User: What shape does this take?
Amino acid sequence: STTNNSNSKLLSRFVSLTMEPPFYPSVREKLLLTVGFLAMIMANSQEDPGKQFKMTVRNELTKDVTLFWEEEIDQYRHEVGLVKSHGGEAIFDAFAGHVFSYVHKEERHFVEAPADAEEHFVVLNANEEDILVRCSTTAKGREEPERLIDFHVRPNWSPRGAARFLSLIRHKHYDGVAINRVVKNFLTQFGIPTNPEARNELSSLKIQDDPNLGIPFVPGMLSFAGSGNNSRTSEVFIVMPDCIHLSSFGKEPWETPFGFVGSFEESVVTDWYDGYGDMPPDGNGPDPQKIYPENGYEYLEKEFPKMDYI
Assistant: This one.
């Protein structure tokens, strides 16, 4: 099974309620519309009883977007707030079945609040399935030149997992990390930061599990490792080629794929040094508990000189 040995801060909240053009109400009308908007929410919740819950919206697009609530009864479109680009987040109250919209590249996209949620997390990606992350890694125990690898992040598979991975990428937490668990025909694992302070900080910043959509694991898929419910931090695993334990993935609540390695069969993944095997007691690889202390990377360099790095 996978193991984990680290929630992004909310960046903004919606603050305004106005009407989208072509409506141009006066100040008094705006006040009335605001009161009316709140009244309509209450009316709708009475006509169609549903639980109010917190809905977090994360914007992974390259431009800020304005979010609107699509009011069906009077067919009004109400502005509820701005969500900043590149991982900006906004959190607000929603009711089951409420529909929200935003415009990206002159096209309007829609988001519907689920019918039976305690809370909800959604990533705005304008129906573009994948977000490409490209990095370089060493190969063959650092005996060959660095090679590129493409991670295709797919937020609709695992919204919180995808958001956490992209946030860690932006904050350079994966720069220089060791590929510390390479087990042939099983998995490869990485994600323990080189900075001791970051290691300690991320170990306590756990994210909630994503709903399991039943997406079957196949070689090349990316998922966070974990150690129990809502335990994902920074460690990620990749399912290796010819995996002999393929059916075991996805049974734990934290194992939901959030992406995959592009051109997997030709990628550098199969050239990462695997001579150390699994972690103790199943192999002679690094002990994760010895990587997390302040001198963890000195331990890796001394005891595992052929280990590859991102």
Remarks:
- The longest helix spans residues 27-47.
- Confidence is low (pLDDT under 50) at residues 3-40, 42-46.
- The CA atoms of residues 201 and 292 lie 11 Å apart.
